[in-house]
Design goal:
- This protein is mainly α.
- It is built from 11 helices and 2 strands.
- It has a two-stranded antiparallel ribbon with strand order 1-2.
- The longest helix has about 30 residues.
- The chain is globular and about 50 Å long.
C-alpha cells in the first residue's frame, strides 16, 4: 500500500511540475515541459498507471501536434487538426487503452444532499492538456504576456458571479460553505489537470482554430466563442440539462476572457475560479433530487 501511494505521489507531482513548466522559459534552447512530462510518464509506467499503448498514443498526439503547427499545406493542416481533435478527445475521455488512472478520492460526501465525489489522477487527460497547451496556446513566459490579462479582469470576476447565481436560481445547488480537509489536493488537481486540459482543448484548439479560420469575418469571434461554448456545455451533459446550460454560460465567459486578452491564462484562471468557488461555497457537485 505504501509503495502504491509513493508511485501515485511521484506521478502526481511530476505531472504537476510538467504543467507548471509550460510557463517556464527554455533554458539554453531546451524546454522544460517535455523533460518533466517524460519523467512523469516514467513514474506512471513504474507505478503501473500507463502501458505501451498509452505511451504510443501520447507520442502520436505529440507528432500530430508538431506536424500541424509546422505544416504550410492548406490541405494537410485541417486534416491534421481533425486527427489531433479526435485523438485528444479519445485520450481525455479515457477511450484509448493503456491507462489505469489511480484513485485520489473515492466516494467522498462533500455536501449534504449531493452525490458522492470520486477523483482520479487522470494521467491521459493531464498529458493531453500539456501537449495541447504547449502546441496551441503559447503559455505566458514574459511580464508583457501576463499584463495582457488586464482587459479581461472584469470578465474573469463577473463570470463566477453569473454562473453561481444561475446555479442557485436553477435549484441545482444550494448555499453550502465548507472547507474539507482534502481541499488543497482537490483544488490543485482541478487547476492543473482539469482546467488546463479543458481550456487548452476548448479555447486553445476549438475556439482558436475557428478564430483563425474566420479571421476577417464580421461575426467570426462570436461564432468561434459560441461554438466552443456549446461544445463545452455538451461535454457536461452528464449533469443534466441545467448543467449543460450553466456550462455553456460559463464557456462564454471563459471564451470572452481568452478572446479579450488574447491569452489562454485568462480562460484557465476564470475556469478555476468558477470551480473553486463552486466547490467552496455551494453544493458540490449537484443536489440530488428524489
Amino acid at each position: 500500500m505504501g509503495e502504491l501511494a509513493g508511485s501515485i505521489a511521484a506521478t502526481y507531482w511530476l505531472l504537476a511540475l510538467a504543467v507548471i513548466a509550460l510557463w517556464c522559459p527554455p533554458w539554453r534552447g531546451v524546454a522544460a515541459w517535455p523533460v518533466c512530462l517524460v519523467m512523469a510518464l516514467g513514474a506512471a509506467w513504474l507505478g503501473g498507471f500507463v502501458a505501451l499503448p498509452g505511451v504510443m498514443a501520447l507520442v502520436l498526439l505529440a507528432v500530430l501536434c508538431h506536424l500541424r503547427q509546422h505544416s504550410t499545406s492548406s490541405v494537410a493542416r485541417p486534416l491534421l487538426l481533425a486527427a489531433v481533435i479526435v485523438l485528444a478527445l479519445g485520450l481525455a475521455l479515457h477511450k484509448v487503452p493503456g491507462f489505469a488512472n489511480p484513485l485520489l478520492l473515492q466516494g467522498v460526501q462533500v455536501s449534504p444532499g449531493a452525490a458522492s465525489v470520486t477523483q482520479y489522477l487522470n494521467v491521459d487527460k493531464a498529458a493531453v492538456g500539456i501537449l495541447l497547451c504547449a502546441y496551441f496556446c503559447a503559455p505566458a513566459r514574459r511580464r508583457a504576456d501576463w499584463r495582457a490579462l488586464r482587459p479581461a479582469w472584469p470578465l474573469m470576476l463577473a463570470t463566477p458571479v453569473v454562473v453561481l447565481a444561475g446555479a442557485l436560481l436553477s435549484g441545482t445547488v444550494a448555499v453550502d460553505p465548507k472547507l474539507p480537509p482534502f481541499t488543497p489536493v482537490f483544488l490543485v488537481t482541478n487547476l492543473l489537470f482539469t482546467c488546463v486540459a479543458e481550456e487548452a482543448f476548448f479555447r486553445g484548439v476549438i475556439q482558436g482554430g475557428l478564430l483563425n479560420a474566420l479571421a476577417g469575418k464580421r461575426h467570426g469571434p462570436a461564432v468561434a466563442i459560441g461554438v466552443a461554448s456549446v461544445l463545452f456545455g455538451i461535454a457536461h451533459a452528464g449533469g443534466g440539462v441545467a448543467m449543460i446550460v450553466l456550462a455553456t454560460l460559463a464557456g462564454v465567459g471563459y471564451g470572452l476572457a481568452a478572446w479579450r486578452s488574447g491569452r489562454i491564462e485568462a480562460a484557465i484562471l476564470t475556469h478555476f475560479l468558477v470551480n473553486a468557488l463552486r466547490f467552496l461555497l455551494v453544493t458540490y457537485p449537484l443536489l440530488v433530487h428524489a
